[in-house]
Structure formats: structure tokens, C-alpha cells
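Quick one, probably user error.
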């Protein structure tokens, strides 16, 4: 079960020495973890390295370091405090999404649902919150946070689910709703991966401004400058050639034609979707997500825009109305 112990500090604004020097976070891993648990933690750190300029070398007598140990819950300080810094990942905490969540705190990121403007996006049901957990829903002062006008991210790995710290319904035993989204069609569920906005915030936090700052991925690198700005503006998914259909164009056409599977759609130079659910994958934003990219390119190449040839004058699908 995921535990919501919260963070020990709520400020993420750069003050004094609360940032890790050169984005390097040496870490020490307790021997109380099993081999498989150590692998999960190490792979979670690598997942952050792949999308940012933060690095996690193993501890070798550095003054400031992260001590990851099995203590009494899942919690971390926010930002660097100096010296030995505890990150607690106890029983039930060693899952990749929880590890990443807590390490994001270590780097300096706070909960999405505590940002100063959150009341525009969610409503806190205080009457349903456990009395000793109210602090987990406190608002951060605008003077204590840098969020660079990033859009509110309901799917952020830093956002609690809608029943976090909820009291139990005496009739059903289920947890009561503690947060309600104000946007229609949104559900507050446990979020299991970094979103595009999470990655953008990481790179803003680390001031990762060019390809040299970030880890390569199998030889794949950024060849130009301004890539972080491109990501933050949402332009990464748009094609530079205006004579090609974009992935959003394809989604709109398939929605218009009520195309629900790969059999409905025309091939693109032999490039086809091999699986079902590709439109849903595209609409959810998962096509370009780092955790789903391999799956998307293999099974939903046409819909997710991984085809290498241009569209001819064939229709995308037949009108069914």
C-alpha cells in the first residue's frame, strides 16, 4: 500500500544551498534492501537520469549525500539540506513510481496539489481528511515556490490520488474522497510514471539547457539548442513539414470517422497499427511517454506517428455515417 507520509519541508524556491551542486546527488543504499529492491531503486534513479541532467553516482565519501534506508514510511526532505540526508523507503514503498516521487522531492519538487494556484483546479474535501493528515493539503506560499507558470498537471507523479489520507466510510469501509478535480472528465488516480510536464519541471529545476546536459539514449541525442523550450511549449509532437499529417490530425480524422481499430485505417507505405487501443493511447498522451514509447512504436506506429514514410493521397478511413 502506498503511504502518504509527506515531505519534511515544503519550499522548493532556490534559497541558499538547497540545490544539489551541479545536479549531482551521491547516494548510499542500505544493505537492508534485497537485491530486487536495490534494482528497483537504482532503475528508478536511472529513469530520472534519462530525461534530465541530474546524476546519481554512488556514495564515495562525499560531504553531501542521500542515505536511502528502510525507516518508518515513504518520505523525504525537499531539496538539499546538507550533510547526510535521509530518504526513507520502508516496506511497501519500493515501487518505481513511489521511488521516483520521493526522489523528485529530494531534487526540490513539491506536491502538485499543494501549489499556490491549486484551488483553481481541485477542491479539497477537508471534512473527509484524517485529522492528523491535514498538513498534507496545505497550500505553499507563492514566495516559497518556483513553478514557472507550468500548467496544472492532474497526472503528475507528484499528485496524490483522490482518496489520499481519506477517512473510512463507516458503512462501506472504503476511503472517502479528499480531492475533487474541477475539470470535467478528469480522475485523480495513482500516477505511475513521469509526465511530459514532470520532465519539463525537472529540466527547469536543473537548468538543463542543452543536449550535453542530458544522458543519451542508445546514441539518440539532441542535435540543436532550445530543445527544453520546445518541450515546454508543447511543440515536440508537431511535425515541421506542414504537408504531413500530424498525430493530432490523425486522431481527429479517426474520431470523425469513428475508426476504432487498425482494420479501419489505411496503411502508410506498409506501416500499420498491429494492436488495438491505439487511438486511446494517442489521446491519453502516452505515445511519446518514455515508458510507453517502445510499445507505441512497435504496436501503434501509424497512429502514434512512428512511420518513416509520408502520406500519399489515400484517405485515412472510410466515412461510416
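Nope, works fine. Designed sequence:
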Amino acid at each position: 500500500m502506498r503511504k502518504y507520509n509527506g515531505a519534511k519541508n515544503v519550499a522548493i524556491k532556490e534559497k541558499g544551498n538547497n540545490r544539489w551542486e551541479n545536479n549531482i546527488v551521491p547516494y548510499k543504499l542500505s544493505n537492508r534492501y534485497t537485491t530486487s529492491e536495490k534494482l528497483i531503486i537504482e532503475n528508478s534513479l536511472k529513469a530520472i537520469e534519462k530525461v534530465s541532467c541530474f546524476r546519481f553516482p554512488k556514495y564515495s565519501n562525499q560531504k553531501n549525500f542521500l542515505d536511502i534506508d528502510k525507516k518508518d514510511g515513504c518520505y523525504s526532505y525537499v531539496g538539499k539540506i546538507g550533510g547526510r540526508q535521509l530518504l526513507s523507503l520502508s516496506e511497501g514503498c519500493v515501487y518505481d513510481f513511489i521511488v521516483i516521487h520521493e526522489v523528485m522531492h529530494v531534487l526540490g519538487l513539491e506536491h502538485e496539489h499543494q501549489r499556490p494556484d491549486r484551488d483553481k483546479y481541485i477542491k479539497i474535501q477537508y471534512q473527509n481528511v484524517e485529522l492528523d493528515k491535514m498538513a498534507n493539503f496545505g497550500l505553499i506560499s507563492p514566495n516559497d515556490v518556483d513553478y514557472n507558470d507550468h500548467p496544472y498537471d492532474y497526472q503528475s507523479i507528484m499528485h496524490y490520488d483522490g482518496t489520499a489520507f481519506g477517512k473510512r466510510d463507516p458503512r462501506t469501509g472504503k476511503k472517502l474522497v479528499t480531492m475533487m478535480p474541477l475539470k470535467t472528465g478528469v480522475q485523480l488516480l495513482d500516477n505511475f510514471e513521469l509526465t511530459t510536464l514532470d520532465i519539463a519541471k525537472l529540466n527547469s529545476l536543473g537548468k538543463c539547457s542543452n543536449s550535453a546536459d542530458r544522458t543519451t539514449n542508445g546514441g539518440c541525442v539532441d542535435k540543436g539548442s532550445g530543445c527544453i523550450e520546445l518541450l515546454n511549449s508543447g511543440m515536440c509532437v508537431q511535425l515541421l513539414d506542414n504537408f504531413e499529417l500530424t498525430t493530432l490530425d490523425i486522431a481527429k480524422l479517426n474520431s470523425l470517422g469513428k475508426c476504432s481499430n487498425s482494420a479501419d485505417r489505411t496503411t502508410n507505405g506498409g506501416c500499420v497499427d498491429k494492436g488495438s487501443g491505439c487511438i486511446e493511447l494517442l489521446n491519453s498522451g502516452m505515445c511519446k511517454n518514455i515508458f510507453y514509447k517502445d510499445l507505441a512504436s512497435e504496436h501503434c506506429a501509424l497512429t502514434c506517428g512512428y512511420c518513416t514514410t509520408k502520406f500519399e493521397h489515400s484517405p485515412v478511413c472510410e466515412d461510416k455515417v
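Helices lie at 35-51, 96-107, 196-205, 227-232, 247-256, 278-283, 293-299.
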